[in-house]
Amino acid sequence: MLSLTIWCCGVLLExxxxxxGFRAKLFLxxxxxxxxxxxxxxxxxxxxxxxxxxxxxxxxKWFWYSGFLILFLGCGIVLEIFRxxxxxxxxxxxxxxxxxxxxxxxVFCFAVLYPIFAPSDTVAxxxxxxxxxxxxxxxxxxxxGLLQLISYYGISMGKNLKGMILGYGQCVxxxxxxxxxxxxxxRRFEPAWNLIQQISYLAALTIWVVNxxxxxxxxxxxxxxxVEGDYDRLVARTRNMVGAASTELVKVNRP
Length: 255
Known about the structure:
Helix content is 80%, strand content 0%. It is mostly helical.
């Protein structure tokens, strides 16, 4: 009953967030973010239709593709944050964007092709969980690296971006911790895991609704990259960050 109540509240918050996004024309400013929320909203509706209306007994393929689509679009939020936060630093923003799209392309190809050649649905599900864990770790690394850049250069952000980072960052962090606990405790942690994830997502939606109710532009940067050496150090930091994320993602292909 509690799980269903949280799920219903989540759907209502998704609808409210989408309504405000269109009403305040935020969809045009943060397209990746709102496509992600729209996909979750449609996924929730279709899941309810399949389970409770059409009474579909099994939808493994739907689970795989919808899960990967949401995972894929979630990384789009990270790229969106990078684009807006690093927009005053065109070279670094381009480097981060290219590296992020390279990771996304690899994951997308893997997600489309693997279910076709997987020996069974059970194996596909197990690999999905593992890939979800590693891919969220990649996003966590990128977000932590971005926060280091923000702190190092004193980059100012508006209310919209702060809410986006806080909401999605706590979702990613919570899920990574949950995966670690699940690996340590085992399947008996699964009921608590599902509930914690639902609460975390509900908290993220609440943060987003509050902080993205209307458009709030980023302040003019107080710090700029002045000398060439400082710029080179920033590029090196970003390259190392993207390289670490790529290395973490490659682990999913290892036995």
